[in-house]
Amino acid sequence: xxxxxxxxxxxxxxxxxxxxxxxxxxxxxxxxxxxxxxxxxxxxxxxxxxxxxxxxxxxxxxxxxxxxxxxxxxxxxxxxxxxxxxxxxxxxxxxxxxxxxxxxxxxxxxxxxxxxxxxxxxxxxxxxxxxxxxxxxxxxxxxxxxxxxxxxxxxxxxxxxxxxxxxxxxxxxxxxxxxxxxxxxxxxxxxxxxxxxxxxxxxxxxxxxxxxxxxxxxxxxxxxxxxxxxxxxxxxxxxxxxxxxxxxxxxxxxxxxxxxxxxxxxxxxxxxxxxxxxxxxxxxxxxxxxxxxxxxxxxxxxxxxxxxxxxxxxxxxxxxxxxxxxxxxxxxxxxxxxxxxxxxxxxxxxxxxxxxxxxxxxxxxxxxxxxxxxxxxxxxxxxxxxxxxxxxxxxxxxxxxxxxxxxxxxxxxxxx
Length: 416
Fold this sequence. Notes:
This protein is of the alpha+beta class. Helices cover about 45% and strands about 20% of the residues. The protein has helices at about 1-30, 95-120, 135-140, 165-170, 190-200, 260-295, 310-320, 325-340, 350-370, 385-410, and strands at about 35-50, 55-70, 125, 145, 150, 165, 180, 185, 205-210, 215-220, 225-230, 240-245, 245-250, 255.
């Protein structure tokens, strides 16, 4: 029940975000005197509508977005009524059109920033000092977390009765113990433990020194067997290696909370890091298409592949079902930020495409004026329609791939 509630709640959050996106276009357009004739939440058949002034507001039957109609977005639009010619959007200065067309993305950015600021003061933002790279993780003290079993391969899954028990647990080690030696070799960090462990043999008896609550001790255990690539080559061949059945407890907290003032700086840093990550994700989109196809055709789903609104809503449901509200909010923040950036790409029919054309027209007029040539006028959008259709087709195929992958082979944050 909580999973379904989380899915619906996240989907509703997306719908509200997109509706506010369109409201950003509408409000800025009205502020500049442009004529807005329609503002609707959803698509398809109209459930209800009402008119206030010159604008019709309403709700459609398919809750998958929204739209607002601004009169005369391009010179080729034929929706300008007699007497409204001066109010057509394309006649306004380029800076005003830029504000109107970017208002949707600005709304998404505002939602992401506000949600991140609230998160910073409640459950916290990701700790920038927490180790994330392999080198940083290996430098952590060897404080262990016991695993339920030793998995025989590299695939993460739940333990089964046929899986070997954790040798560390069988020896009496506990969560939070710090390993200090292995077969007489001193251990100063987790990397030392991994390196020394690989020098042993599967099935051999190992002597392990540890520290618990300030007290030292020694235990013996028979090492298990698992399959892993070489430590210094994660893409190398997988072979049988010894296993203790442990993980690492990182001492640095994953989330940090802040006061209202400190949260401003923390939010700025967090959003800056997200901007870099989003730019990198956009650059990797083309290379992720084969990975999506692999997931659809029965291969393993790469957790780094894109997800659709369907997949994001499912992850939101998982987060709520596992009482991980911080993940729910982080998904909401990252999705809004990504939509805001994506919508500014200089491609039609995205808002960024309209902005790019407006500034191209302005730059071209400036150049022609300096060359004492007649102004070439406005861009003919009809000539750009083939390129627009290509963008729509590619976007539609990509969306279909992500939705299909999210249905047949979804990413999960909490494996069962």
